[in-house]
Amino acid sequence: MCRVHVWVPELISKRGGIQTFSRCLVAALTEILGRSNVQVMAKNDSDLDLESEQTVALSRGWGSWHSSLRTFAFFSGIIWSAIRLRPQIVIATHLNFGIAGYVLKRFTGIRYWCVAHGIEAWNLNRRAARFGLLRADLILAVSNYTRQRLLAEQPLNGQRIVILPNTIDAEGMKARAKPAYLMRRHALSEGFGIVYLEALACGKPVLAGNSDGSSEPLQNGKVGGLVDADDVEKIASSLTNILNGTYPLDALYSPERLREESLRKFGFDVFKARLSELIFDLKT
Questions:
Q1: Which CATH architecture has domain 170-265?
Q2: Sign of torsion over alpha carbons 226, 231, 235, 237
Q3: I want to staple 143 with a disulfide (CB 3.0 to 4.6 A). Which of 192, 211, 273, 278 is the partner?
Q4: How far apart are CA 77 and CA 92, in angstroms?
Q5: For the residues of 94-110, what is the DSSP string, one character each?
Q6: Domain ranges of the chain
Q7: Angle, nearest 10°, between helix axes 194-201 and 17-33?
Q8: E strands, 85-198, where?
Q9: What confidence tens digit (pLDDT) does each residue in 209-218 have?
Q10: Torsion sign (Cα): 169, 273, 47, 64
């Protein structure tokens, strides 16, 4: 049975697109391979954080280390753990960890994959992160937009970059009151835009930018409105049309269809099936 180590920034202590992807990745790997074959290493979560959440996979966290020492301790710990336990594959869900994957592969031959999300992967000029990315055995891009940016900006073979889109927990995505922190979050560019997918899964109409990965959870306009994110007048008129029920897209006014279409393409079972294919290809 294939053994996998997953290196994540955090699963518990922070919430965002990378963390959501990481939690879903760990959950899917655990269902595919079994709990004993998946080991999670979290830089910013403590062991207590991970235990309190009853993480589905075996986990270790470095969040209790002082910030001045944490990076060194984490990199030393993940490399040593992999040398000792010998997983068949390491998956780094942040590009900053790719350099550790390279060091590990250089001395042990263990293969590593990197996940490319969005802005952290575009115009990448941080030397260590770029070095680790370029030498990864496989790159998992969360959107076609990010994949195309990497191919345009980096000397990469297209066969080494596959798309593994973000997914969501369908049971956790149902209409309810919005938490205060959600209203404070914003971004001008998205590698995928997990918040759009979450809204669609709750049956809510969505308007997003048409020039980055935001269009992909909207299936390029099939289940949501797309607009130039820099055109304030167009944004205002599109929002007015949506609220007045006159926007020319019937799907926007069918909560059941929005949820069904989103889960059909981006549901957890679809995510798990795609990940299983990649793991199976590795084993063969």
A1: 3-Layer(aba) Sandwich (3.40)
A2: negative
A3: 192
A4: 14
A5: SGGGHHHHHHHHHHH--
A6: 4-167+268-283, 170-265
A7: 70
A8: 89-92, 111-116, 138-141, 161-163
A9: 998 888 999 9
A10: negative
